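Exam revision sheet. Question 4 asks you to relate a sequence to its structure. Input first:
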Amino acid sequence: MARLQDVTLEDHRPNGADVQLQVALDNMPGALVYTDEDLNIVICNDRFKEMYRVPEELLQAKEMYRVPEELLQAGRPYSDFLRYLAEHGYYGEGDVDALVARRVDSLRNPSGRSFEDHAPDGRWYRIVRRRAAGGGTVTVMTDITDQKQAEQDLAKKEAQLRVALGNMPGALVYTDKDLNVVFCNDRFKEMYDAPPDLLQPGRPYPDFLRYLAVNGYYGTGDVDVLVAERVESLRNPSGRSFEDRMPDGRWLRIRRRRAAAGGAVTVMTDITEQKQAEQSLAEKEAQLHVALDNMPGALVYTDEDLNIVVCNERFKDMYRAPRELLQPGRFYPDFLRYLAVNGYYGTGDVDVLVAERVESLRNPSGRSFEDHTPDGRWLRIRRRRAAAGGAVTVMTDITEQKQAERELVEAKQRTEEANKLVIEKNRVLEGLYAEIQDKNRQVEEQAAQLAEWNTTLESRVAEQVSQIGRYSRLTRFLSPKISDLIMSGETDDPLKTRRAEITVVYVDLRGFTGFTETAEPEEVMSVLRQYHAELGRLVVEYDGTIEHIAGDGMMVLFNAPMPVENHELQAIRMALAMRESLTALSLSWRKRGHELGFGAGIAAGIAGGYVTIGTIGFEQRLDYGAIGPACNLAARLCGEAKDKQILIAPRVLSKVEAHIEVEPVGDLVLKGFQRPVPAHNILGISRAGLEQSTSMNRDGASVTSTVEQSP
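Answer key, structure tokens:
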């Protein structure tokens, strides 16, 4: 419609063109009026007339005015229309002539800029006046009432958002891409003893960080370095949470994420009570294990799904069964089936024998019963339903008691035979009677002792079942390898956060992103299952620890949580085996039309000193991970690797250079690293590396026996 001013109405235009122009004007979305140089109306579309046409019911209800239609007819002075509006209060109070004169001046000298007008009936208009090429002025009006209402709603919601952020349980600060404070809620300000003006909107957030560094909040060290580390975290937020301990002893969980509109959002939560609860839980779990492993009886606790929650050493020692069948999380009926298959329950249908004992687990009677093992031992067994669900089974070895009872029966039989003898054998009878009394006394003493043990055992079990349930919920979220370490007690708390020298391997598929954009989701999942299965097998074979899996990306740690001899070389062997295996696998993918390749990056934990390893997560979900420059470097190298390349960092290369064959790929400029990183592509294991592999193989280490070369 902006080009309408180029239209000139000429007397010689055909009537058909007039009709077409009028139809177009009447159906345009905005209102339009065109006045000539004498301020007479040339044309006025229906939208314009409708803006000032008030329905009959509104006229009666609100005492509003109605603009006569003849005032907007072609040839009428536009000033008459303006005067009518002024006289009826459309422009508010004031001198009518002055109100009309201002608008006449706007017609004679249109600025071309838009302005807004609020009508008495509550509607809002955006008005633009422009000078027409043929003389006169074109006025275009657009109803923006809905837009103004939306702006008011937005302002209201923004106020509500500020109230919500100010009352959220955690602390929050939002900084823009220039690191200036956009918003900071009261919780954040209360966490720090810093001048409030440092956290006002518009202030540079590094000023606040510098204040904390100068006042010892980050400990000793160069203030500029301390501030620079945190500024880098703001510019490149990882999205992962980390923990920070304040000088006053409080613990905070901090998470920074990149905002969609730019900048970063930092959220902090006070987890001091949680950290104290975790420490208390660890102490109680240690006490519980000591108590369970030193109790006189055997105990196994199964949950409602018949999975093993906890099993003490006494229970494992009672059966000649693979110990992995009694690990936490294993299905207890698998253990029962093993016993049935190996004749522990005697002859009969295995499924029936197992079903009888599963029924006893699902519906424990609480009464004790006796069981005779194939090796001749007697056990007294008692199952009770646990308060937290599942069943607790307690077993006591009563072999000696049963032997005493059997001897008592035999003694009584001998006594009956002796009674049939003649009186002259009275002395023999008296001797036997004394023997019987002695055995009976032993039986009574043993029975009393067993009764006392059972009473003590049941009392301690009742007190500890709730602790077992909590421990079960914790170990359920740990990986099997870490759970085995905790349960065995053979290592010094492998999950404890500590600093260690490790080797990190990061691998992914080349072309995977493009593949996911064109392939069906089921096909993507099929490829990932093959890929993860093959990589997972090799990680286990070479004693690696999977830190995390994200789509086609996998991060593997060596020398954590358990030490691995020559972990740098072991990591390289695994990467070479992965390349060889995935090269064969990619051939099958290409037959299905998927162009996927393999890339990897290797970096040592000493790339920036030591990395920090330990548990990451929260109480209901703990995982094992590593944080440090070595992790970032491995991921960056992987991102630069081409198909079938394995890029190695210089620190690792310096340790294994004599054992591998490499080719330089030049200095790489990697994100997050100030200086270029000289990288090399691994071609294979050298002859010296193969000789060391043979030596390690004789010592029982897990190595590959084939010569690995780059394809």
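Marking note for examiners. Residues 426-475 form the longest helix (50 residues).
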